[in-house]
Write a structure and sequence with these properties.
heterodimer, A: 292 residues, alpha/beta, D-Maltodextrin-Binding Protein, domain 2, 12 helices, globular, B: 513 residues, MetI-like fold, 21 helices, 74% helix
């Protein structure tokens, strides 16, 4: 541990001294990012593995760039700093609308029918049910990030459907934005918020990691399915890395079979996908006023 | 010392500010939403006192310094040039007011749209507001300088020569002090930029606080305090060229291959143009009707409530700062703290002052949940630290009678009354700064203007974001103007207000901070 840290320290000094000239290689590195939807250490783990895998498969240098917020991921994609991104359903729609020619190429097998969990602190006494729990009205409520699909867009849509003519601010005593799903779980578990909306895959991952106290917080509603996360790529990669690169990239992603990579994603495998799969989210975005 | 005009004295102004703050307290959202804030605080402090220095990412320290040095360098350079026409040119004054009324973080959020997560974004986000601030301060320093040397110059001396030979020597020392102080602010700004994704120390601090790795946060903070505490050692005339060149060499390598030209065109020509104007014919009245239909809900649903909450937060924080400063300044004054207590008090206040308020608010919001309370605490702590430090120096500079009373009597009947005008001058000056910061705290979840800016950026509605930022800037400029009028009416407008002001505090060491 210490040695690794010392190594990191030494590397840091070296990089600081030699910074500036990028590593000289034939092709510019393929840079990608992902929306920071959960615990950062898990993001670094999963995307580090993806970067090494893609570098191997595609023969071009691949780099992961961490960002601090959902819109920062979209901005990095629109201004061309990253060519590839792991977006949520809604951020993907935002990014593809802003960058003509960019396309969704692959999603997790689970993303075709993704779910939101509404979770509640046990002190509320709220019980699980099949229909949207209207008893949440008047409680404090936290979304995830503002531009999250499973943590904001879809739950807001379901809330507006359950309480016609009312906004979440009018339904709940207080509405917050936790920033990411891991944080949403922590906030509801600690009682800072009574109820929250969370990505079901992050809930499962955090439950497996032993971070969820079943006595303090539990799922009270499971949403109908909707499309979510996907890999979206810019059109200019074919120009940079040669014709057919997009297809090779899709094949590489779909070909990931190593459980060590898939597990931190909470996905069993990746499957091809097209933009059309996300059309329903555009409608939901308009209905909630988050898209023009 | 300064008799105030009838009707508006120190007491009346203080009472009014306090009364408004009390009313604000009644309507402010001060809810603590977390259940175990004290347990979390104990964990936080436990980590902070056991710093894990091996976890510090050295590169982030280098980038923090590099962004600060280059950002401040550029800002100071531009500010110096702008200071020349500042007094004569209204457009220049307006431009500078606009530049400095927008917070570094707002600049960074806008610049990021064009330059991405890059050194350019980091440096410009510091340089732009600092150019506006420096232009104003340098112009004031020149204005306040002794002009006798100018009068003895031979007729026909050029403006440049006159400036170099008669004005600059008079003012160089003050400008140097102020520039050094700006660098300290630049380090703080540079750190805070990491919280939104630039590769400075704030990037790792945000992660460490978010994930509860408090030992790493403690180490990062210790390194940061050491940087600020030793700045007099490493920022000197001789090290300046080395610092500048080193900073350029040490900048982080560019990420990806962003096409700045295309991004800039899209940003200026499309993204920030109000949506109805992008497609509509600007000569048709129908377009303007749609523009109003677009703007009206932004005004009533975001700008006005945002302004109200921002003013409420700033008002409470301002009065809390005042109370805090009055309580704390004896800690650093010789007569009150004694020879042993004073250095300790100073260290305490310097640490408080060096801690960026944005980071304090971030930590406070994690501990207490998203209400105004942590924001008020963060603003009051940071600003009270600054004002108390300065007041302590003034208190030491007061010539007391040999038979002056001691303790509480001295404090209540002599020191505070004699310093009260100075105290108000500092507070009124910080009003604008507190307001700017109150608006930015919205990004963290308090419902001030920044809250709506954050929402607009999340929805990729940059046209709305720009309008909200402009509203924030206008509010800041208005409060600045009000503060100046008040200071003039109280006849305290000639008292020093800046940390490294144009007027030296007699008997105090130079520089200040």
């Amino acid at each position: 541990m210490i040695r690794r840290r010392l190594g990191r320290l030494a590397l840091g000094v070296l990089a600081a001294l030699a910074a500036g000239p990028a590593r000289a290689q034939g092709k510019p590195p393929l840079v990608f990012t992902g929306i920071p939807d959960q615990d950062e250490s898990r993001l670094v783990e999963r995307f580090g593995k993806v970067a090494r895998y893609l570098e191997d498969k595609l023969g071009v240098p691949v780099r992961y760039v961490p960002v601090k917020s959902y819109p920062a991921a979209v901005t990095a994609f629109t201004n061309g700093q990253v060519q590839l991104a792991w977006f949520g359903g809604f951020t993907g729609v935002q990014a593809r609308r802003a960058v003509p020619g960019s396309h969704a190429i692959a999603q997790g097998a689970e993303d075709a029918a993704f779910k939101t969990y509404v979770i509640a602190n046990s002190a509320t006494g709220l019980k699980p049910g099949k229909d949207f729990p209207k008893t949440v009205a008047g409680q404090t409520f936290t979304f995830g990030a503002r531009a999250s699909t499973s943590g904001r867009l879809m739950p807001e849509y379901f809330i507006r459907q359950a309480f016609p003519g009312r906004t979440p601010e009018q339904v709940f005593a207080r509405v917050g934005f936790s920033g990411d799903h891991t944080r949403t779980i922590q906030l509801v578990q600690s009682g800072a918020y009574a109820v929250g909306a969370v990505d079901y895959s992050v809930w499962d991952l955090d439950t497996k990691a032993g971070k969820v106290d079943p006595k303090a917080v539990s799922v009270i509603w499971e949403s109908p399915p909707f499309p979510d996360y996907q890999w979206t790529v810019r059109a200019d990669v074919d120009k940079t890395y040669g014709a057919g690169f997009t297809d090779r990239l899709r094949d590489a992603l779909v070909g990931i079979a190593d459980p060590a990579i898939l597990e931190p994603f909470g996905r069993t495998r990746f499957i091809p996908v097209t933009d059309a799969a996300y059309e329903p989210l555009v409608e939901v975005g308009r209905a909630t006023g988050l898209l023009d | 010392m300064h008799p105030a005009p009838a009707g508006l004295g120190y007491a009346a102004v203080s009472r009014r500010f306090a009364a408004v703050a009390l009313v604000c307290l009644l309507v402010a959202d001060l809810h603590v939403t977390t259940l175990h804030p004290l347990a979390d605080l104990a964990r936080l402090l436990g980590g902070l006192v056991r710093p894990d220095f091996l976890a510090v990412e050295i590169r982030s320290v280098v980038y923090t310094v590099a962004f600060a040095v280059l950002g401040v360098g550029l800002g100071v350079g531009a500010g110096f040039l702008l200071a020349v026409p500042f007094a004569r040119s209204r457009p220049v004054r307006l431009a500078c007011a606009g530049l400095r009324a927008v917070h570094e973080l707002f600049w960074a959020l806008l610049l990021m749209q064009v330059f991405g997560l890059s050194a350019t974004t980091g440096i410009l986000a510091i340089a732009l507001p600092y150019a506006g601030i420096c232009a104003k301060v340098y112009a004031e320093i020149v204005e306040e300088a002794d002009l006798s040397a100018l009068r003895v110059l031979p007729p026909g001396t050029g403006a440049v020569s006159a400036f170099l030979y008669a004005r600059l020597p008079e003012t160089a020392a003050r400008m140097r002090d102020y520039t050094l102080y700006r660098l300290e602010c630049g380090l703080r700004s540079s750190l805070v930029l990491g919280f939104i994704g630039l590769p400075t120390m704030g990037f790792y601090l945000e992660s460490a606080f978010r994930q509860g790795r408090y030992a790493e946060a403690g180490a990062l903070l210790a390194v940061f305090y050491a940087l600020i505490g030793t700045r007099r050692l490493w920022v000197r005339g001789v090290t300046l060229p080395v610092l500048l060149v080193g900073a350029v060499l040490a900048l982080p390598p560019a990420i990806g291959s962003a096409d700045v030209g295309a991004s800039l065109t899209r940003f200026l020509g499309h993204d920030i143009v109000p949506a109805p104007l992008r497609t509509g014919d600007p000569t048709s009245p129908e377009t303007w009707a749609r523009l109003w239909a677009w703007f009206a809900p932004i005004l009533t649903g975001q700008i006005l409530p945002g302004i109200l909450q921002t003013l409420i937060l700033a008002q409470i924080a301002l009065v809390a700062t005042g109370l805090g400063a009055l309580l704390l300044f004896p800690l650093t004054a010789r007569r009150f703290a004694g020879r042993l207590g004073r250095p300790l008090g100073r260290v305490l206040l310097v640490v408080v002052r060096s801690t960026p308020e944005y980071m304090l608010a971030y930590v406070g919001l994690q501990l207490l949940g998203p209400s105004m309370l942590p924001a008020i605490l963060a603003l009051a702590l940071h600003n009270a630290g600054i004002v108390a430090y300065l007041m302590g120096r003034h208190a030491d500079a007061i010539p007391y009678r040999p038979d002056a009373p001691r303790g509480l009597d001295l404090y209540a009947y002599e020191t505070v009354p004699r310093l009260y005008g100075q105290f108000l001058a500092y507070l009124l000056y910080r009003w604008e700064l507190i307001l700017r910061e109150s608006a930015i705290f919205g990004i963290l979840g308090v419902a001030t203007l920044g809250f709506y800016v954050d929402a607009a950026i999340s929805e990729l509605r940059l046209d709305v974001a720009v309008i909200l930022i402009a509203a924030t800037a206008a509010l800041t400029v208005a409060v600045d103007a009000l503060s100046r009028r008040l200071r003039r009416r109280l006849r305290i407008d000639d008292l020093p207000t800046r940390l490294s002001g144009p007027q030296r505090i007699p008997c105090a060491e130079p520089g200040g901070g």
